[in-house]
Amino acid sequence: MTDFDVEVYYDGECPLCMREIRMLRRRDQRQRIRFTDISAEGFDAGVVGLSWETLMNRIHGRLPDGTLIEGVEVFRRLYAAVGFSRLVALTRVPGIAQLLNLAYKLFAKNRLRLTGRCANGACELHPRGVRRPSDEVIAP
């Protein structure tokens, strides 16, 4: 037996995401979930084997055998780990599964805008502590 069922890579700067993560932490009485904040100082996306941008575009997880999962499947694994197995079973019913996949794709595509993280029509993010020359503030 491993010491976790699923590791979740989440954006700790996303208000909606953090609401979900807090709920999962409270319900994870058996500590079956590993929580990894991809926005945290020092997070290295290379350890996961994906780019930071890829991790930011969709939720990702890792199973104990090293398999990477993404999207709705991550939520299924998280909810199963905290005891919502009946709910997870419903998400696999044909029709419901397709609807959830579509809804998540739409949410992921618009997540930054929907959570108030865009300015002046731009939703560009950079890994914490990484600035590009175009990000520099130039004083007059």
Shape: globular
Tell me the domain tally.
1
**Mean pLDDT, all residues:** 87
- The secondary structure category is alpha+beta
Q: How many helices does DSSP assign?
A: 5
- Please describe the biggest sheet, giving its number of strands, its sense, and whether it closes into a barrel: 4 strands, mixed
Low-confidence stretches: 129-140
Describe the structure.
- This protein has 140 residues and is α+β, with helices and mostly antiparallel strands.
- It has one domain.
- The protein contains five helices and four strands.
- The longest helix has 19 residues.
- The relative contact order is 0.15.
Main attributes?
140 residues, alpha+beta, 5 helices, 4 strands, globular, disordered C terminus
